[in-house]
Design brief:
Layout: E1 5-8, E2 11-12, H1 18-29, E3 35-42, E4 47-54, H2 56-73, E5 89-98, H3 102-120, E6 123-128, H4 139-142, H5 150-154, E7 174-179, E8 184-190, H6 195-205, E9 210-211, E10 232-233, E11 240-247, E12 252-259, H7 267-280, E13 285-291, H8 296-309, H9 318-329, H10 339-342, H11 344-355, H12 364-372, H13 380-403, H14 412-447, H15 454-495, H16 501-526, H17 532-564
Parallel strand pairs: 5-7, 6-7
Antiparallel strand pairs: 1-4, 1-5, 2-4, 2-5, 3-4, 8-12, 8-13, 9-10, 11-12
Length: 565
């Protein structure tokens, strides 16, 4: 079970005074367990989006400290900016990352809202999944009237805050605390300075759309229903909020969007739709920018989308998919796009690697030297996984090369599918390189547990058994994945680029090495497990995988030899 992790993305109504921003982010970083991932200030919006992750309790503690500092350091009476806002800590959403449900995240959001209200004295509304009434689910409804209308709104009993004082605090305003799915704050750059045109495009695409008018869609009388309510014409993108604005620091207008469910409207679909709607209005999209962080899969999906439109193989590396996505959507037009800073998984990984050296982050030279050192890990298990990764990668290479061979244009999609399978295999095998070393380290840690009393000895024995089973399951998984990779290797030996037939042969050799090498790891650890029925089942499965790998290697090498004659 992964450690529960929650992401917190507070927005502060200060984007120009870096001293104020730094004091707030320093307080966040000082909380044990919290990892600060991104700080994104905007001068024109006069707003800073901060992203950090950690265990729920630590995240709530950091958010409370940040809210208190924001109330002390930011004076809303003097705050002006392009972005809608109603408080110093304007919004503070919690987002489940791993090991935590949305229901649990809502509970933590309510704990945070209560602490901000009772301990800091902020006026707090709960929104999205944390909303206590349906009328407060939508952030735009909660923040309607913004800071300038907050004093009047607080006099309305229907808008009494969920936590904290119901009296207007002119310095700190109000704060919206929420629990939500991963939201992408995404801006589309335009070749115009017209906010009016940017707004028109935003209204074309956003789910809410625009008010319906008779005759002239801009100046005609508003159409109303039988109850006298305005009739709205929805935009073309679901789960999309948007407005247009002018960004003085870049000298351009933008469509500023929040994509609230990227499974419904992914980033690349929003970009393409804006391109189409802008062109219809005589405006051109020149690029885009992300505010805060984005999940890796959202960028990879965009890369696959644009490669598919080019009829190119989708089984390329993640780095290549990211590069295609960045170039296709112009994500680096206004500033460099750094994956280790803008992609949430990479940002977490970069900080973890700074604390613990990961084998897969080493160069081939350094990995070899690390293996040759006096340390018992990495050992044969990690090397077996590495061999399997090389074999799967070679098969993927043959598929990618075959997908764009001249004259094979009608076969590109089939080779792309093989390449994607191969990529899944070598990605998992790369992960298993470090997993094998981690399993060995867990055994060593269990052996160091105290055993002075009978209770301590029993606990130590149980932990060693548990760790040893894990140390068997990792190489067993290496065997399974390497065995699965034979299907792609065989297909490439049979159907792939003739000039790469030797590469398919080397891939088969690597895959069998991975299976046979991992089998040795399974066998050597099996003798230390007391649960002999479990061991018997594992060994039977492992030995069958090894026999099958021997047969497949022999078959593929015979095929390779026949084609090389």
């Amino acid at each position: 079970m992964p450690e529960p992790l929650i992401e917190c993305v507070p927005n502060f109504s200060e984007g120009r005074d870096m001293g104020v921003i730094r004091r707030i982010t320093d307080a966040i970083e000082a909380v044990d367990g919290v990892t600060l991932l991104d700080v994104d200030p905007g001068a024109a919006t006069n707003r800073t989006v901060v992203t950090f992750v950690g265990p729920p309790r630590s995240v709530v503690e950091a958010a409370v400290k940040a809210g208190g500092l924001a109330a002390e350091l930011i004076d809303m009476r003097h705050q002006q900016g392009e972005h809608p806002r109603f408080g110093a800590m304007d919004v503070c959403p919690l987002v489940p990352v791993t090991g935590v449900t949305m229901e649990e995240t809502v509970e933590h959001a309510h704990l945070l809202a209560r602490a901000l209200g009772e301990e800091v004295g902020l006026t707090v509304y709960c929104y999205e999944y944390a909303a206590r009434t349906p009328q407060r689910r939508n952030l735009a409804d909660v923040r309607a009237g913004e800071y300038e209308g907050l004093a009047d709104r607080l006099r309305d009993p229907a808008w009494r805050p969920d936590y904290g004082p119901a009296t207007f605090n002119p310095q700190s305003g109000a704060t919206a605390v929420g629990a939500r799915d991963f939201l992408i704050a995404y801006n589309i750059n335009l070749n115009t300075t017209s906010t009016r045109r940017a707004n028109a495009i935003a209204f074309d695409v956003r789910e809410k759309g625009r008010v319906k008018r008779e005759g002239n869609p801009l100046t005609g009388p508003v159409v109303r229903d039988a109850q006298g309510q305005e009739v709205w014409v929805p935009g073309s993108l679901r789960c999309c909020k948007g407005i247009g604005w002018f960004i003085e620091e870049y000298g351009i207008a933008q469509i500023s969007m929040n994509l609230t469910n990227i499974n419904v409207t992914p980033m690349h679909i929003a970009f393409d739709e804006c391109c189409e709607k802008a062109a219809a209005r005589g405006v051109r999209v020149t690029g885009s920018e992300l505010v805060g962080l984005v999940p890796l899969e959202a960028i990879l999906d965009a890369g696959r989308h644009y490669l598919y439109r080019q009829q190119r193989s989708l089984g390329v590396s993640d780095a290549e998919l990211i590069k295609i996505a960045v170039r296709s959507m112009g994500l680096d037009e206004l500033s460099p796009f750094k994956p280790e800073e803008k992609i949430i998984e990479y940002a977490i990984e970069a900080r973890q690697e700074a604390a613990a050296r990961r084998l897969v982050a080493l160069s081939v030279k350094d990995f070899t030297h690390e293996t040759a050192s006096e340390s018992p890990a990495p050992g044969g298990g990690s090397i077996a996984a590495a061999a399997g990764a090389f074999g799967a990668a070679l098969a993927t290479m043959v598929a990618n090369l075959s997908s764009h061979k001249r004259g094979w244009d009608d076969r590109w999609e089939a080779f792309s599918e093989w390449a994607q399978r191969g990529k899944q295999h070598h990605d998992e095998l790369l992960h298993l390189i470090d997993a094998d070393t981690d399993a060995f380290n867990r055994i060593m840690a269990a052996m160091r547990l105290p055993q002075g009393s009978e209770q301590e000895a029993e606990l130590r024995s149980a932990e060693i058994e548990k760790a040893t089973k894990a140390a068997i399951e990792i190489p067993l998984r290496v065997m399974q994945v390497a065995s699965e990779s034979f299907e792609t290797i065989e297909a490439m030996a049979e159907e792939g680029l003739p000039a790469s037939i030797s590469d398919a042969g080397v891939a088969a050799l690597c895959a069998r090495t991975a299976v046979r090498g991992a089998l040795l790891n399974v066998q050597i650890n099996a003798g230390d497990v007391r649960d002999r029925d479990w061991v018997a089942g594992v060994l039977s499965q492992a030995e069958e995988l090894a026999r099958r790998a021997d047969q497949l290697e022999e078959k593929i090498l015979a095929m390779v030899a026949g084609k090389m004659e």
